[in-house]
Design brief:
170 residues, single chain, Leucine-rich repeat, LRR (right-handed beta-alpha superhelix), 3 helices, two-stranded parallel sheet, 7 strands, five-stranded mixed sheet, 14% strand, alpha/beta
Length: 170
Amino acid sequence: MGRHIILGFVLLFLLLGIAPLGLCGRCIESEKQALLRFKASIYDDPHKNLSSWNPKTNRCQWDGITCHNVTGPVLKLDLSFYSLQATSVDPSLLELQHLIYLDLSGNNFNAISIPTFLGSMGRLRYLSIAGSNFTGKIPTNLGRNLTALQFLDLSWNDLHINDMSWISKL
């Protein structure tokens, strides 16, 4: 009788469209590969901050990562004050389609421009790149596309803005 109850729950999950972690293998693997490409594009002391980002382990257990506890996609990437350095930000973060929280504050992006692809992450509710040594113009697509955004922190960077009309769309 116990086996029938377990089978019933599995069928219920499938009918409701709630896939347990093991049933979402393709999306999990694509997110893992995207995060590893992002890691490869930045400088990090291999014995420190992102050392838990091992391709042989579950990405939901990596430092700075929070996944949905039932369905499994990455919801939060919090790398604030990880002492990361980069001269570019890999757009592979776009593959984290369920990401709602992104914090890259307190790192050193070596005076590069804010990556325009951040403006394409339409599900973001939280975005902070404060004190990360970004410079130049703030991409206007941040205001056009990030309609779910509830928190935005661009402070302590050398940024300027020509047109502030996009702010009203946030």
